[in-house]
Specification:
By secondary structure, this protein is α/β, with parallel strands linked by helices.
Length: 410
């Protein structure tokens, strides 16, 4: 099975974290987001990975190279993001006439369901959504006819997906399309679709033809999430860190205490007086302490630094970022090479107990999270004793002065 992984987008809703890094390469536990997708494909016996790259493509190419976990990797370039059918069309020359999977590099799937998706080709992933009107709702029919051996016909003894209704006001079911699908080899020649009302070339138009000519199996995913906004990156890390297995390969002081699932990678240092309550992953080169407290689903990236008497709670701290002494960071995402001044405090709870809001593409929206701190772009710095209000976004390279209280994005 060939697996096309769409990883060309910038991820504007994830700004400022994607100012210099494509969204699929943001960290989720011990690997980039799109590596979880690649792992699911390889586990499902993909014999080749085709990455569609575009924005900051070098980051993807450098990570995956020409082979990933023993599976050959090739690349196709999408210079302009003109829709999902256009993205797959960019990979057409890399595909042969065999069936191929389309997976999204900014989505997380449970690997067992992807295995089933591959086995039941042609197939489309499905998910039971709490708010189905926000998605494309699948139309499904029961099928008892045997159908032909190539998958054409009225069914193969199980349900058959027959269409997708985009964001209906009154959905007939809560079963929605989760995007991932396995298409017949012929679909390689069906990618030249007309431009949609949104001005894009949509894969759903390709699927309409596949539905018409093939019995397409809906495969319900046990778990799935799209990772499009910063608080969803937190949720993605909460998911993947929940399965963390304790290990200690780095240097841990006898005076430090590790509670619950905590993994310390080789080259990391945990100094005296540190308490870490998992699930927490401390990546290679990171240094924590002395007397620091790290808790919740927390990722401390490569070469990060958590100083004396610092508390980090349920956060993502990316590579090379420093949180020096006497600071507090809760429910937040700190980009790469961030430097917080001593005594920086992040507030992560509104006084009215309502969900924290954050600005996304110029619009103030609810994160749906009662506890949520800040998002800080690469290279930003805070002065000593800075206070940051819930939902604040500091852009890449932003600075605050000593003693500032920051309640607005900058």
């Amino acid at each position: 099975m060939q697996a096309v992984i769409l990883a060309a987008g910038e991820g504007t809703r994830m700004r400022p974290l994607t100012a210099a890094l494509p969204k699929p390469m943001l960290p989720v536990a011990d690997r980039p987001l799109c590596a979880h997708t690649a792992d699911a494909a390889v586990t499902a016996d993909a014999d080749r990975l085709v990455f569609v790259v575009g924005y900051e493509a070098d980051a993807v190419v450098e990570h995956f190279g020409e082979e990933y976990r023993g599976t050959p990797v090739v690349y196709a370039t999408q210079d302009e993001q003109l829709g999902t059918a256009h993205a797959v069309r960019c990979a057409r020359e890399q595909l042969d006439g065999d069936p191929f999977a389309v997976l999204y590099g900014d989505d997380l799937y449970d690997a067992a369901s992807i295995q089933t998706l591959f086995e039941r080709a042609p197939s489309i992933s499905a998910y039971r959504a709490e708010h189905p009107s926000n998605y494309g709702v699948l139309s499904v029919e029961g099928g008892e006819a045997a159908g032909s051996g190539d998958g054409r016909g009225s069914g193969r003894g199980h349900e058959r997906a027959v269409g997708v209704v985009e964001k209906p006001e009154t959905p007939e079911t809560n079963l929605v399309s989760a995007g991932a699908c396995v298409l017949p080899g012929e679909a390689r020649d069906w990618l030249d679709v007309a431009e949609s009302e949104r001005g894009e070339y949509e894969l759903t138009d390709v699927l309409a033809r596949v539905f018409a000519e093939y019995a397409v199996t809906p495969v319900e995913l046990d778990r799935w999430m799209g990772v499009g906004r910063p608080w969803e990156l937190l949720e993605a890390n909460e998911w993947k860190l929940a399965g963390l297995v304790s290990s200690t390969r780095g240097e841990v002081s006898d005076d430090a205490e590790l509670r619950g699932p905590v993994a310390i990678e080789e080259g990391a240092v945990i100094e005296p007086g540190v308490v870490i309550e998992g699930p927490t992953l401390v990546r290679s080169g990171a240094r924590v302490g002395p007397n620091a407290y790290v808790r919740g689903a927390t990722l401390l990236g490569e070469d990060s630094r958590v100083g004396h008497a610092v508390e980090i709670k349920n956060s993502v701290v990316m590579a090379g970022t420093h949180v020096p002494h006497l600071s507090y960071v809760g429910d937040s995402v700190l980009g790469r090479e961030v430097n917080l001044g001593a005594g920086t405090t992040v507030a992560n709870l509104r006084h009215d107990d309502e969900p924290v809001e954050q600005t996304v593409k110029g619009e103030r929206v609810s994160t749906g999270r009662r506890k949520y701190g800040v998002v800080v772009g690469d290279g930003a710095k805070t002065g000593i004793q800075t206070s940051l209000a819930p939902g604040v976004v500091l852009s890449a390279g932003a600075h605050t002065g000593p003693g500032e209280t920051v309640a607005r994005d900058r």
